[in-house]
Amino acid sequence: MATLKVPATVPSPTDDAEQLRKAFKGWGTNERLIISILAHRTAAQRRAIRSIYAQTYGEELLKSLDDEISGDFERAVVLWTLDPAERDAQLANEVVRKWHQSNLVLIEIACARTSDELFQVRRAYQARYKRSLEEDVAAHTSGDFRKLLVPLVSAYRYEGIEVNNSLAKSEAKLLHEKISEKAYSHEELVRIISTRSKPQLIATLNQYKNEYGKTINKDLNSDPKNEYLAALRAVIRCICCPERYFEKVIRLAIKGLGTDENALTRVITTRADVDLKVIEEAYYKRNSLPLVSAVKGDTSGDYKDMLIALLGHDI
Amino acid sequence: MATLKVPATVPSPTDDAEQLRKAFKGWGTNERLIISILAHRTAAQRRAIRSIYAQTYGEELLKSLDDEISGDFERAVVLWTLDPAERDAQLANEVVRKWHQSNLVLIEIACARTSDELFQVRRAYQARYKRSLEEDVAAHTSGDFRKLLVPLVSAYRYEGIEVNNSLAKSEAKLLHEKISEKAYSHEELVRIISTRSKPQLIATLNQYKNEYGKTINKDLNSDPKNEYLAALRAVIRCICCPERYFEKVIRLAIKGLGTDENALTRVITTRADVDLKVIEEAYYKRNSLPLVSAVKGDTSGDYKDMLIALLGHDI
């Protein structure tokens, strides 16, 4: 369930584009107006506004936003304004160019999207960067991470709900064997988690727990400092319980003294029109604090207002 | 260039469906009529005929064909009548179910199609078999072949013509190193040939030849009996010179006493509306014999007539 709130009567894209232009003009920028429009439109509506804006004013809306606003607020508005596939392509490219083992964004994009969404990301990536996503991932990663990430970003998983129980049984056994041998990057393990359909994989992991007494992620937590194991656990969580995965990303982003604005912005802009409501519920359950209060406590100014608006609350 | 010949005035799909129904009815089947219609329609036209036929007669055209005709003739007509993506999905599934290292069909489908065509094959595969293509390939292959085939069938290569020359130089060097070390399944080698765009890969292979004096396929021919090396050479040929690859498949299918009808049918039905004319030219150049004469000499009956019609000649 999404948190995005769209008004009952939506102005025409032409009116929205005109209002945005007004928000940019004159002395200072009207940030509230920008938020009141963009944070309350669907992806298709934002696309229409961008198209009309470029036709009318001879400049890309994203360029105007870049000129008028800045910092975390700009990043939140720009990421949100992009089409979901373009946004993911940009996030993936940022990560790939300065790739670090602890970064889980590629896994998020590969595993917490539908098969068709991931494919659209691959198309958008090519259109923008003139290379394929898997080509860049393969060229910028190495070792166990490459063995895992390239098939994950290249996957086009079957999405039917059919489950083969005897296969779930035999592959649970195989996974357990490899994990017991600490062969975490064994090609059979990677094959299973990168090619099987999500319902099939969930059946396999249920079988794993029933048969061997612990969840696979417990067994993949033998060394909390091992970043490859953390990546494997993220794959499993993005596939089996994305809302709990995203809750944790937000929790860690907010926790402690500083805030990880990049992570917070990413989760809120990528999930506001998907399942942010469910993530909010998971957050409340885990932290006994409404997500909106936590966000208000940790952010400020227009950036805060943008996130609160995307969370579906009044600013 | 295609060999497919479509009449200047094409009957409506309704008329075609009616004629086909007539060809099936009564005493015996009118094979000539079947050929005269189906072998002279584009994929879109055949699709329209199938759709109208099913609506009108309450039976799939492919089912009627299966009841009325048989053997090599049936296989040629049925494969041809399928949509290209469905046909490739069927061919891939046949191969995967009884996979053998010497079989190059998966490589053909992965490397001698455009990126979008390959993606459509993956979609068609899921629609028909309720599993993903890469899932089946990964589950039914092993060792070096799996390392090569899974990324190849999962690829969505960039199709722009941009070439990075310094990258071509460095990757030619890398390929030469790995081949010199006989590390033919090294992950860097597989990465390069399975993810780079075709123009980029061709530039790399030109660089390889300029720098090291021999084509990569000469260097990959150190052991003619090694089937993995044969697979690698097929990848290179399907990407760099598909017409020469297909010429060779046809040549070997026809050569000697028996005929490999499966291979002959596959190449003619998959290439008749793509580049069979160019393959014909390559065949003539290599064998000093027109392909149509070779096919006439090696086949007979309705099967022969179907192939000749697809080759664009009168039967």
Automatic annotation (TrEMBL), chains A, B:
Molecular functions (GO terms): calcium ion binding; calcium-dependent phospholipid binding; phosphatidylserine binding
Gene3D superfamilies: Annexin
Matches recorded under Pfam families: Annexin
InterPro entries cross-referenced by the UniProt entry: Annexin (IPR001464), Annexin_repeat (IPR018502), Annexin_repeat_CS (IPR018252), Annexin_sf (IPR037104), AnnexinD_plant (IPR009118)
Residues annotated as binding Ca(2+) 1: 24, 26, 28, 68, 254, 258, 299
Positions of Ca(2+) 3 binding: 298
One GO term (biological process): response to heat
GO cellular component, as recorded: cytoplasm; plasma membrane
Domain of life: Eukaryota
Keyword Repeat attached: yes
Domain remark text: A pair of annexin repeats may form one binding site for calcium and phospholipid.
Full protein name: Annexin
Species the sequence originates in: Canna indica
